[in-house]
Every structure is written in structure tokens, then in C-alpha cells.
User: Fold this.
Amino acid sequence: MDEGKGRLRYTGMLTLLTACALFLAARSVYLYVADPERFPINTVKIAATYHHITHKQLEVILEKYNQYSFFSLPVSRLQKELDEMEWSDNAQIERLWPDSLKIKLVEKTPIATWNNAMLSDTGEVFNEGGVETEDSLPHLSGPNNQHQEVLQVYQKMSKILTMYGLHAAGLKWRKNAAWELVLSNGVQLRLGKQDLEMRVHRFCKAWPAVFAEKPDQLAIVDLRYPRGMAVQWKK
Assistant:
């Protein structure tokens, strides 16, 4: 019995020593490959065309990872930080042996302004408080979290206007649930709460005969009447 216990104790001790040896060996290998002086990242290649993300923003993020080697760099953490930049849509990171890092960065594409933010082509609201005054983008506004519905209505109205050679520049969904469409020449169309498409069609059909010869003098067209419209001219 004592001999059996001795063998068991010996086996347990041998197993423990083997595990410790393997741990120390693995630790030594990790410390070796994690040494940035032995395996430095000397080159960072950024494959991107960006207009709003700055070199300074990228430098601030990349500087946090100077202490990592080519092998120990936490790629997923770096990618997460790059993805969280305000204008970043997608970031991909690739290690290039022996000492390079390739970062592919895709910027968000804004299709409109939304209240005091931007609206991307994927329907994401971003860059809140930093709206840029780009005349090429439509200006949409409305209740919070209703940007998808406002965008859909704008696209429908814009399509109708285009059929008649006119162009939309913005759409407002006011607190009283009434809609106001703004044309590219600054004319405001008050559409009310219902029959929006019918009312825009009515305005477009009247445009050639009533407004086309003096568009610069037109200010507001109220289309909330069943069979007509009220017109306000500039003073």
C-alpha cells in the first residue's frame, strides 16, 4: 500500500513539474516573440481614400500600440478602435511578414443631413453636432429616431419632382406631423399631413403655366387645400 502511494505521489509530482516546465517554456516563447525590439512593426500601410478622418486621429490610435510586437499586436482591439471613429464604416487589418501592417479603411458615405447629424447610405445617424454644410446633400429633419421614414418620404417626393424637371433639397417633418418640402431653388412646399404625393403632382402640373416664368419670385406654395393652392411671392 505504501509503495502504491509513493508511486502515485511521484506521478503527481512529475505531472506538476512537467506542467510547470511547459508553462515556463511557453512563457519564454511568448516573451521572445512579444518583444517589439526583436519583432518590431516598422511599416504601417493605410489603404484608404478618406476625406473626414484625419491623419492625426489615426496617429493617436496607432501610438497606443507601439509597445506591441509583430506577433503580440491585439488586432481585434485595434480594429475595434478604428471602427469606432466617427466617420469610419469598416476597418480591416492584415499582418504582412516580416514587419508591416496593412490597414484598409472605408469611410461612411453621407447621403443627407439629419437634424444636427449626418445620415449614411446604410441608414445610420452619425457625426451628431458636426453637420457639414454641403449643398449637394439634402437636408432632412424630424422627430428623433424617425430618420428612416423621413428619408423614404423624401425619396418618393424627389422622384416625382424629377419627372417634371424639378429637384428637392430638403424635407421637414414638423412636430404637428405636417410635412414641408424644400426645392433646390429654395421654394417651400407645404404639404400637410396626408395625400403628399397627390399634392406634389398637383404643384408639378401647375409649374409650367403658373411658376416657370418667374421661379425666383416664388417663396411658399401651400398645397393643403383640396383643389387649389395658396402662393406667397417674395417681396
